[in-house]
Specification:
Four copies of one chain form a homotetramer. The first copy, chain A, is α/β, with parallel strands linked by helices and 275 residues long. Chain A is 33% helix and 29% strand. Chains A and D meet through β11 and β13 of A and β11 and β13 of D. β2 (28-36) of chain C pairs antiparallel with β2 of chain D, so a sheet runs across the interface. Chains A, B, C, D: Belongs to the PurU family.
Chain lengths: 275, 275, 275, 275
């Protein structure tokens, strides 16, 4: 059973929380705690050996915590997700394979693409694929069609697995802190389009990828995880794109594991990650 | 103030410990906790904002903890160390520079070498250097001379910074869990002498270094930290030795930072590291 | 067009080889060269812009090179491979996905498993799967059944993608330098079975994986590539196995890319890798 | 003997160059070659076993190469450098230690600081230190004082080892492609001042450092090498600065090794690095 709590910091929070658990004879297997002094914010993640009555526990914890504390107990062991794609296969295929073998930590409900390219791979894994073209319609119409499809499945998260359309603030508002994006760059370098071509022309010796929650500012949401790999003068822009796909796949897989395992707290524009 | 505790695991330990701190209005800045289920062993490291009466606190913690709990409160902010060397400079120079600029987290009391090679660099930093040759004497006599020198300074730790003589069980017993060694290999690969030559002949694509506490078995003590770097077919055995020195310096520096900052627990042949 | 040559070293080899190319107005896009002084062995890989008459070129190169030179011109742009598996999916699924999307650099002809676990994933990608059980038969019979299946497809390489049976010298002799294995360890640490359990009990802070050609000695063939990742005290043996699967997938993918792109030379027990 | 050449690309360059070497019975130990198709530019670095008459060789190479080819033969085995510093010690100390033990690949002629902080460490290594304050004078006067000091020593390179004043285009023009800077960021992220504070506020999960040649644009010169390390939510801005110093030291050391070993070509705003 996982318990995650964030609230304003004050003396005695760990004692108060763990006393509640001890009262119920609950054993803490692992405990991650962090205080952000700048924000005076307290974060705790507890992995408890035994199951317990979540409603009762939440009430007892509320009694000892500050008002406005965010308490989540026993999050769904299996999250549900929708995936948005365009044409590139690498992130989606990795998700589909893990989903098929039961190691994703979530269940893929559907895939929505603005091109038909990835329809067949979804069919091979018996995952519903919906083609929602962005052509010959307004962005609002396009996004509403996507939202409708997503709402059919009530997913916990929507994963942008190389979805190449910029989403409007309205769309983002529909899925507050539920949108996870893989950005093909080591943010904040090379914000925006064609980062690998930018990287090539700058002659960088590292390229990277960033997984983040999506907020209204382009490429500006809370970062979940990021990695870099070495490149050199022998890499063309296309070689960088190819190498970038490997790192994008790895970074998104890592981010999803952290999110689905309830290891990420978001507060303002930053994350606290209990690995 | 840092508080570190290890003891047999049981329900309610975190609650009991943090209740003691809350009673004294002590604020926990960060808390690392780990339970080793295989060993039924509990480890906790608390970084507390305010100072407090260490003796009183220790007594109160003892009252709520199992017998045989190991409690350390407010460890010396500045450890004292002795360094043993042979001829290679890279680890020692790194330690001397950090010591000189006050960023080592410990204070170098003396350096003991079985060759005179590194005498001058010590003199330049005003650190006492003692030449204790291993030649024309038994290992017991050699080691007793070193022990005598070390005992003059009562260091908390003895760092083997590329000390190339194998130490006897008797010597090790004098400094139980106080001896930190940098081993020129990614243990457990290439135990023993000339690991880089072994690595060269095996054609490996990575070499590494390992910092560990020294126990009686050669290269077998609890590992503190280790790292690897890529090598390739263009590396001669000498090139591997040269690259290895860079990684040895980095790994030992990292290990010493962790040890001096009281982030390492040792139990049996393993470490728990709260980074 | 790729040209790869290895031969005993002597003065003037690069001049002799490149003069042949210049005579035909062939432009060298990239050139990797290495001389192993210990072995007095010369290796060169040339990426030539234009196609050319391979037979004529090979003859002209032979005329200017030492006897016994190994010359390969214009290797098949698309290699054919067979894959051997047991129960673990991660390496096979990665190969099948890349094969399906045309980015593997080779074409998967068939998969042979000693368990039926991975039959379905192969079916989903329309790849023939053959179940060859090792039960109730001698190793010789078992291996002969596999060899027969492989021979139907005449693959250039046989990839052991987590194939968990030890192969006999006879089997290995059938596929000299055609067998590529992913070993679940940073060789030469933890040779043999259950390396992650060995790693767990040793308390290592890094685990790794090694891709290598298979020779008769267990885990002793020429290493193609290897990588490590950090682990810590919170990892159970099972967590290490899980993390190990990620690194195994990445290391095997990298090794196959290098092999299929003709970037690996093997001589005695080592590789020369032109990345 | 190292030979480095860059020139416009054309068919037959490698053959022409290596024929000259073969004529003199010179043996090529290693050869790095690169063609930048976008720029139609050819780069070659040859490590030749035997010494030779450099003037004669250069003339013979000129005869077979395009006009305007840049040929450097037998570069000084020991470069001379000047170092500019402000207050931070980590990069300078690393350079002084390597210089003292003869492993820098260059000889430190003098250190110039705009603060006196690092005077003592230079004195301990018998290296001349000049205090050139930037206070109460124009930038032109300040820079001219530095230029005068540097000119006394005629160094091959000037290393900015955490020199915190922005240099004018006039200063840079005095030392074209001789100025090597370590920038406390993974460029192009966080250009300019206080990159670690920027990184902290953005909540990044990696920080990095970049070594580059200095051109007139701030932080915009050709990149030599760069690296990143992982950080997390527990890092304050000061912790990032501390971790950054380790990576800055490592990156600058690597860059200097590459430069002093004649492994870097610069063309326009990019480097070609033969590692």
């Amino acid at each position: 059973m996982i318990i995650i709590i964030q609230c304003p910091d004050q003396v005695g929070l760990v004692a108060a929380i763990t006393a509640v658990l001890a009262k119920h004879q609950l054993n803490i297997i692992s405990l991650g705690e962090h205080v952000d002094k700048d924000e005076n914010r307290f974060y705790i993640r507890l992995n408890v050996e035994q199951p317990a009555d979540a409603l009762l526990l939440e009430q007892e914890l509320k009694n000892v915590l500050p008002d406005n504390s965010l308490i989540t107990i026993n999050p769904l062991p299996q999250k549900k997700i929708a995936v948005l794609v365009t044409k590139e296969y690498h992130c989606l295929a990795d998700i589909l394979v893990r989903n098929y073998f039961g190691t994703l930590g979530a269940s893929v409900q559907c895939v929505i693409g603005n091109h038909a390219t990835l329809q067949d791979i979804c069919a091979r894994f018996d995952i519903p694929f919906y083609l929602v073209s962005h052509e010959q319609k307004t962005k609002a119409v396009f996004e509403n069609e996507i939202i409708e499809k997503i709402h059919q499945y009530q997913p916990d998260y929507v994963v942008l697995a190389k979805f190449m359309r910029i989403l409007s603030p309205d769309f983002v508002a529909h899925f507050k802190m539920q949108l996870i994006n893989i950005h093909h760059s080591f943010l904040p370098a090379f914000v925006g389009a064609n980062p690998y071509r930018q990287a090539y022309h700058r002659g960088v010796k590292l390229i990277g990828a960033t997984a983040h929650f999506v907020t209204n500012e382009l490429d500006e949401g809370p970062i979940i995880t990021q990695q870099t790999i070495h490149v050199n003068h022998t890499y063309s822009a296309d070689d960088m794109i190819k190498a970038g796909k490997e790192i994008e796949t790895a970074v998104l897989a890592k981010a999803l594991e952290l999110v689905f395992d309830d290891r990420i707290f978001v507060y303002k524009n930053k994350t606290v990650v209990f690995e």
